[in-house]
Amino acid sequence: MAITAADVNKLRQQTGAGMMDCKNALVEANGDFETAIDLLRKKGQKIAAKRGGNDAKEGLILAQSTEDGKAGVILSLNCETDFVAKNEGYVSLVQSLVDLAIANLPESAEALKALSYDGKISVEDKITEQIGVIGEKLDLSTYAVLRGECVVAYNHPGNQLATMVVLNNSTEDAAEAGRQVAMQVAAMNPIAINKDGVDARTIEREIEVGKELAIQEGKPADMAEKIAMGRLNKFFQENTLLSQQFVRDNKLTVEQFLNTTEKGLTVTDFRRFSLS
User: Fold this and answer.
1) What angle is formed at CA 90 by the lines to CA 108 and CA 271, rounded to 5 degrees?
2) What is the rounded CA–CA span in Å between residue 73 and residue 111?
3) Would you write out the chain's pLDDT as a tens digit for each of its 276 residues?
4) 3-class DSSP state for residue 38?
5) Which CATH number fits domain 195-261: 1.10.286.20, 3.50.30.50, 3.30.420.310, 3.30.870.10?
6) CA–CA dist 184, 182 (Å, integer)
7) What Å distances lie between residue 101 and 5, 12, 162, 173, CA to CA?
8) In this structure, what are the phi and psi dihedrals at residue 269, rounded to the nearest 5 degrees?
9) Distance CA 133, CA 147 (A)
10) How far apart are CA 242 and CA 169, in angstroms?
């Protein structure tokens, strides 16, 4: 049967595939749209298998809170090149995944992939379809959902870095403070909320490194332990969120900043995803 330009354009609007790919798929499918979509998806599977070993280090990271501020999601869809990551269609694809995640709040990347994308195919199948359209490996590499009294999302310009923080109060002042702290997390990359959140292996490593440095500096072995503990405290101050100097006013720690905003205000959770 004759394939019209309108048919090709309709399939292109549905799938995002190139004009020639859409035309060829429709020709092979004898004009049947569902069959043509399946053919494009199979093409994506072939390309995915072929490019499975490629590095996908570029991409976009987006974070977004629900309208009521009680939950938020953050995800990264990776691709192979910066050129693709900056493409308007790719940005729209990532935003559509975020919108789906916000609407459904799946608990894991696997659960997100299993969601229906458009009532016809799953998110995972949509990503595979787009591998065929784009011609690069795509990978939903990281995903998290956070819940709490006040969940604040921050997207750093360029969408290569995004953060979310959860606060224990949801007042207007708390939400603005949360945005400042989310930017702090982006800038300073803390490893935990406070020292209680630092894993034992990291603490042991810091103590051992501190001892070794003290001995190399000529300090007596019996003093090395005390010196190492002092350095550990400094490590906590520099690497745990509430103890860090507040970026916008280094006379305050983040904990002090939150308390000056609202007594008892604190962070209960956070996430930071970055491509670098």
Assistant:
1) 35
2) 13
3) 677 888 888 877 777 777 788 788 888 888 888 888 777 777 766 665 666 556 678 999 999 999 999 999 999 999 999 999 998 889 999 999 999 999 999 999 999 999 999 888 899 989 988 888 888 889 999 999 999 999 999 999 999 999 999 999 999 999 999 999 999 999 999 999 999 999 999 999 998 898 888 888 888 877 888 898 899 999 999 999 999 999 999 999 999 999 999 999 999 999 999 997
4) helix
5) 1.10.286.20
6) 5
7) 35, 25, 16, 27
8) -165, 160
9) 35
10) 16
The token pair at 49 is 């298998």
Cα angle for residues 220, 198, 215 (degrees, 5° grid):
15
Alpha carbon of residue 132 to chain centroid: 24
Tokens of 80: 């192979």
Superfamily, domain 5-50: Ubiquitin-associated (UBA) domain (1.10.8.10)
* CA 26/CA 39 separation, integer angstroms: 9
Phi (first) and psi of residue 218, to 5 degrees: 90, 10
CATH number of 58-176+268-274: 3.30.479.20
